[in-house]
Write a structure and sequence with these properties.
Layout lengths: L15 H15 L11 H8 L9 H7 L3 H41 L13 H6 L3 E6 L21 E3 L3 E7 L7 E8 L5 E12 L2 E9 L6 E9 L5 E8 L1
Parallel strand pairs: 1-3, 2-8
Antiparallel strand pairs: 3-6, 4-5, 4-7, 5-6, 7-8
Helix pairs in contact: 1-4, 2-4
């Protein structure tokens, strides 16, 4: 009988991929550091993720990353974004070639087909379902990393939103994971007024969510936007003012 060379599993019945995945999930929550004490800044994490510096020269920082859940999540997010950007770059070249082929076909055939005139759409019909697009940056609300504060820190004001049909691009604080998020707008008494969901992905190293918000029936005033990852536990509040 011929024996095939086979890489042994890390544990009996457990593949290496599953073992490493479980280890990553453990580190993501096992070492909380909400005040970000001793954490390297974003620029240093980015340099380590891009392999711009030798790991042997930065073992202290690497030891910190693997024993600090916020840093580990942020490092993983940067690495995921780098891999996604590389894949998009490769795909973009193929897409550009395809667009060029389609454009050439349209150009060559433009005189061989009849054009059917379309009646102009009514302005009211166009405006009826149009959503106003807004970018909401929640990163300024991130707790500052480092030791104890030496002077009072100025708190950011509320997020201003209009009473309208909105399509929000929400930029979550640094270190936020990808996944599905729930957004609940509550009044001063904690009563939910609007609830919506969106899927977060990392774009240019920023965890971003596209989510619809229908605020047309919400009265002007101060509210709280509660943000929680659907499969997570922690819910983070952000001040909002509806105008």
């Amino acid at each position: 009988m011929r024996l095939l060379n086979r890489k042994p599993d890390m544990l009996p019945g457990v593949s290496e991929d599953r073992f490493l995945g479980a280890a990553r999930r453990y580190v993501e929550s096992a070492y909380p550091n909400p005040d970000r004490v001793g954490c390297p800044d974003r620029q240093r994490l980015d340099a380590l993720a891009r392999r711009k510096c030798s790991p042997a020269d930065h073992m202290g920082e690497i030891d910190h990353i693997v024993t600090c859940s916020p840093c580990f999540v942020e490092y993983q997010a940067i690495r995921s974004a780098l891999k996604r950007r590389a894949a998009l770059t490769a795909g973009g070249v193929a897409a550009a070639a395809l667009v060029a082929i389609v454009f050439a076909g349209v150009f060559l055939l433009r005189d061989h087909g009849a054009t059917v005139a379309q009646p102009p759409a009514k302005t009211a019909e166009i405006a009826k379902g149009v959503r106003q697009r807004r970018i909401v940056d929640l990163r300024p609300y991130e707790r500052q990393r480092g030791g104890a504060d030496t002077e009072p820190r100025r708190q950011p004001g509320p997020v201003f939103l209009d009473r309208a049909l909105l399509e929000l691009t929400i930029q979550l604080p640094i270190g936020s994971e990808e996944g599905r998020y729930r957004f609940t707008l509550t009044d001063a008494a904690g009563v939910p007024k609007v609830e919506t969901f969106g899927d977060a992905i990392i774009r240019n190293y920023i965890t971003t969510v596209e989510a619809p918000f229908d605020l047309r029936a919400v009265s002007p005033g101060r509210y709280t936007l509660m943000v929680r990852r659907v499969d997570g536990i922690a819910e983070v509040p952000y001040p909002v003012e509806i105008r």
